[in-house]
Write a structure and sequence with these properties.
CATH class of the largest domain: Alpha Beta
Strand order of the largest sheet: 2-3-1-4-5
CATH topology of the largest domain: Rossmann fold
Oligomer: single chain
Number of domains: 2
Helix content: 55-70%
Shape: globular
Number of helices: 9
Distance between the termini: 14 Å
Order of helices and strands: EHEHHHHEHEHHEH
Length: 198
């Protein structure tokens, strides 16, 4: 069983993914995908990380594009997609973000999840992660910007719409609690696995 998770920014999805991986005793792949893609490609981790957030116009992008026909962001998407497919072939794992649900769309053993949370909860989480202090209205703008970037990336590389319930097997409100969400995902994964082996 492979579990993919997409999530709103500062929803607590990363922590829920880690709890799911811990409960099932399987690896979680998030930033590790950047490292693995870098090793496979010869690109630096910094170039890969930058390409995930900037399509064009950056200095790294401009320098890298000299002599290349495929944009760096597209190369990175293909690289990371191949890494995700290889990891899924090796065995059970949790894949966080990076269009994992879409990349593995041809497999029947994938539980596709999406985590969202109320705005007030997300602002509270974002405050703990940042050394910057904003008013609530400013935080709303910051969160919306991050979500737009995630949606833009996902919508660009897939045939689906980011965060749209019909694209996932399970959508969870993180306000239920991180442990509760992790347990619901674990139970759904076990039920799905049992259905496939029956």
């Amino acid at each position: 069983m492979v579990i993919t998770m997409a999530r709103e920014y500062a929803s607590g999805g990363s922590e829920i993914a880690q709890r799911v991986a811990d409960k099932l005793g399987i690896p979680l792949y998030n930033k590790e995908l950047i490292t693995l893609a870098a090793k496979k490609s010869g690109l630096t981790e910094e170039a890969i990380a930058a390409s995930e957030t900037q399509r064009s116009g950056s200095l790294i992008y401009s320098l890298y594009m000299m002599g290349n026909t495929l944009p760096l962001a597209d190369q990175v998407y293909i690289l990371q997609s191949n890494v995700i497919k290889e990891l899924a072939e090796k065995g059970p794992c949790v894949v966080l973000g990076r269009c994992g649900d879409y990349v593995l769309r041809g497999r029947g053993d994938v539980l596709r999840t999406f985590v969202y949370a109320p705005l007030a909860d997300r602002i509270a989480i974002a405050r703990t992660r940042s050394d910057k202090q904003y008013a609530d209205r400013q935080w709303e703008s910051v969160l919306a910007k991050h979500d737009r970037a995630r949606a833009s990336y996902y919508n660009y590389y897939t045939e689906n719409r980011w965060g749209e319930a019909k694209n996932y097997d399970l959508c969870l409100n993180a306000a239920l609690g991180r442990d509760a969400c992790a347990e619901l995902i674990v139970q759904a994964a076990k039920a799905m696995e049992a259905a496939h082996t029956a």
